[in-house]
Write a structure and sequence with these properties.
The chain has about 325 residues and is mainly beta. The chain has no helices and 27 strands. A hairpin with a 5-residue loop joins strand 15 (about 185-190) and strand 16 (about 195-200).
């Protein structure tokens, strides 16, 4: 508490003496002062009567008293969430005397930035230990100060890759490539950009697949969270091209007679079909069991039911597979061997 003498000589001799009494006997010898403009620290709040006696060179004296009120000193502290670089840290102030009377907050985050919010958020761009200072001032003009070290660890880095080509109707493989940066990633949240999401929590496999029903460009976002609660996310545009729809027809299956298979694969407006892979489900036929022709022939030498597969591939690399069963019978008389 600073005291300033405003005494006037009133035309008499010069003032040469000051005798202060601060009304605080518990302060001992510090309860008095002979300085012109002294200061005094009050240990307890309350009402104090301060007196000043001034004397002049001709030994004239005058006394004045003032009653002053010492407000309770504010008490301050703050808490903060776990800190990672490039992630938001929440700071929460705690004023224990009377939060309503707090006039302002002055934060120094230790990296050259400041805030006057009561409970600010802050992002550190680099790891390290930062000494965070908080000074509050109440409505009485009293201040309180607290400092805490805040340890900021490297934040996680979100990354992923995906298979190409990415085709409608086909599974697209998304592989997590995120970096934990000295911590442990505990969850992966995939947003596929078409209204579908998937959450994976440790120890689950963060690599996922997704099927897009329609062609287009989709923004896929991977958000990760580590053990300390720090988050990171990244987004990539995934172009989905139109995939084909495989289909085929065939003639009646007769034993020992070539059966004609006709490709009816639809491009669905996408690139042309450039590859066909047939599997006739007839391994006894050896190398003849498969074909790369668009419309092949195949001879079945044993009566029975065969599952025939066609995989059609477009110029963009998109594939589709269809299966039909063919029943092979003895359609005409064959001479016995």
């Amino acid at each position: 508490m600073n005291f300033t003498d405003l005494s006037q000589p009133n035309g008499g001799g010069q003032i040469t003496g000051w005798a202060w009494e601060f009304g605080d006997p518990t302060s001992g010898v510090n309860n008095t002062s002979l300085l012109t403009n002294p200061s005094h620290t009050y240990a307890q709040p309350g009402t104090y009567t301060v007196s000043l006696i001034v004397t002049t060179t001709n030994s004239c004296a005058d006394t004045t008293t003032r009653v002053i009120t010492i407000a309770p000193a504010p008490v301050v502290d703050f808490t903060f969430t776990s800190g990672c670089s490039n992630d938001t840290i929440q700071f929460t102030s705690s004023t224990f005397v009377d939060p309503v009377s707090t006039l302002n907050w002055a934060w120094e985050f230790g990296d050259g930035t400041t805030s006057t919010d009561a409970d600010p958020q802050h992002i550190y761009t680099s790891q390290g230990v930062y000494f965070v200072n908080l000074t509050i001032t109440d409505t009485a003009g009293c201040t309180a100060f607290i400092s805490h070290p805040v340890s900021v660890i490297p934040g996680p880095i979100s990354m992923f890759s995906f298979t190409a080509p990415a085709c409608s109707g086909n599974e697209v493989q998304f592989d997590d490539m995120s970096l934990a940066q000295g911590s442990v990633i505990t969850s992966w949240f995939w947003d596929f950009g078409d209204g579908n999401t998937q959450l994976v929590t440790a120890p689950g496999n963060p690599d996922v697949t997704h099927i897009y029903a329609n062609a287009g460009v989709y923004t896929v976002t991977l958000s990760i969270t580590n053990l300390e609660g720090c988050d990171a996310e990244t987004s990539m545009n995934v172009q989905i091209v139109t995939g084909p729809t495989a289909e085929f027809v065939f003639e009646q299956g007769c034993l020992g007679t070539p059966v004609a298979f006709t490709d009816l694969t639809a491009t669905n407006g996408g690139p042309a079909i450039v590859q066909w892979l047939w599997n006739f489900g007839d391994p006894a036929s050896g190398v003849s069991n498969t074909s790369n022709l668009q419309n092949p022939l195949h001879i079945f030498n044993v009566a029975g039911t065969y599952d025939v597969l066609l995989t059609s591939t477009s110029a963009s690399g998109c594939q589709d597979t269809i299966q039909h069963s063919i029943v092979v019978t003895r359609c005409r008389w064959l001479p016995s061997m």
